[in-house]
Amino acid sequence: MRTAIYPGSFDPIHNGHLDVIGRAAKLCERVVVAVAVNHAKTGLFSMEERVDLIRAASARIPGIEVKSFSGLLVDFVREEKGDAVIRGLRAVSDFEYEFQMALMNRSLDENFETIFLMPSQKNIYLSSRIVKEVATLGGDIDRFVPEVVKAALRAKLGR
Ligand code: PNS
User: Fold this and answer.
1) Domain range for 74
2) What is the pTM assigned to this prediction?
């Protein structure tokens, strides 16, 4: 496959995301990590911060580009000439939401394909929300995020 798009909120990127990016990079020539502008909620990190953190965290993986987009994912995928969208699937609980998104996207564009990749078991329970909660409450997040994200979380949370 030539180009895969890996969309998400990435607020912030964690080791589960990096696990999926690494797997996608082995399958595709070019992986575009696409940070979505969420009109419904403001995150902890700004769009620029999220993009910078992903760039820093994925710098050693070849073939990775990091971009932001607003609007529909189907339009971004078309603009980038994406062959498929990659999503991480951690547990059965993810399935319903992912199924709904994949089929909505396909109904918006019949050529839209979603490929699900599973992170390794050690990263299966990670989510940005849980990592932020643990960091906010002073827990150790060393195993969950790269050093650059840990430092950014510390600075953001004043810890
Ligand atoms: O990491 P997330 O928050 O689960 O990612 C969700 C995301 C960003 C992939 C999804 O909300 C999205 O595609 N947003 C772009 C807007 C869009 O196309 N919405 C309709 C698709 S269901």
Assistant:
1) 3-125
2) 0.97
Binding site membership of 101 for ligand 1 (Cβ less than 6 Å):
yes
Establish if 143 belongs to a structural domain: no
Indicate the pLDDT class of residue 41, thresholds 50, 70 and 90: confident
Residue nearest to atom 16 of ligand 1 (CA): 72
User: How far, in Å, is the centroid of ligand 1 from the Cα of 159?
Assistant: 31
* Of 11, 16, 154, 157, nearest in space to 86 by CA: 16
Q: Is 8 in the pocket of ligand 1 (CB under 6 A)?
A: yes
Write down the H helix ranges in the chain: 15-27, 47-57, 73-79, 92-108, 128-136, 147-157
User: 43 C-alpha to center of ligand 1: Å?
Assistant: 14
Q: Is residue 137, in this structure, part of any structural domain at all?
A: no
Does the beta carbon of 89 lie inside 6 Å of ligand 1? no
CB 18 within 8 A of CB 120: no
Region 92-113 average pLDDT: 96
| Encoded amino acid at 123, one letter | N
The CATH number of residue 96's host domain is: 3.40.50.620
In a domain, 151, yes or no: no
